[in-house]
Amino acid sequence: MTISLDAAEWVRRFHRAPSAAARLVCFPHAGGAASYFHPVSAALAPAVEVLAVQYPGRQDRHAETPVDDLFVLADRLADVLAPELAGPVAFFGHSMGASVAFEVARRLEARGTRLLALFVSGRRGPTVHHDDRVHEKGDEELLAEVKRLGGTGAAVLDDEDIRSMVLPALRSDYKAAELYHYRPGPDVACPIVALVGDSDPKVTEAEAREWAARTSAAFELKTYPGGHFYLNDHTAAIIRLISDRLTA
């Protein structure tokens, strides 16, 4: 299926898979970009076609103003994705991306789309709130937090040119994630699979288990050794999990 011009602004497809059994839409973490999911796309194709979301303000969209309101971001993505999701589809989001994926799923299900599954990684349930204010701190403190969590590319933040390019989107994403509060209303009717690292400083297993209340379908919790970016060390296992759920 061809992606519309509007969706092409927001979605990256690294490996075409016209005969795929399903599509997986991936939502990046705060400061992350669509390219983070290139290895996932390569591993799942051609059985599953991956569409990776590219938020404004990074990589090829670096000249655009980042969106610092998660609800605004979800509204826009729901409008963009709705025409593109004919056939079986699932969502995967890590950290902030999990909240974005959930809110987009709520909006699309209200329009009649039904997901095969919602994979939420490294993120506490939406009703669990921490009064984090990292987005209000200075540049050095914000970057120190990113390095502490150990995300892919954290080491390159020592480069002054790269820092100046990523800081606006990073701060905007942190604001969107930290000020997000769950709004009561219909949740989702698809199964939710929550994934978490056993030593993640941002979310405990108990907080991840709170996702169970946000679906009327089945819920699973998968725990892996590691911190907030545990998935970097368990990519193969997570890809097997996704593949099993989407191609069964």
UniProtKB/TrEMBL annotation:
The keyword Transmembrane helix does not apply. Keywords: Hydrolase. GO terms for molecular function: hydrolase activity. It comes from the Bacteria. Gene3D superfamilies: alpha/beta hydrolase (3.40.50.1820). One of its GO terms (biological process) is lipid biosynthetic process. InterPro entries: AB_hydrolase_fold, TEII, TesA-like, Thioesterase. Residues 25-246 form the Thioesterase TesA-like domain. Belongs to the thioesterase family. This is Oleoyl-ACP hydrolase. It comes from Amycolatopsis rifamycinica.
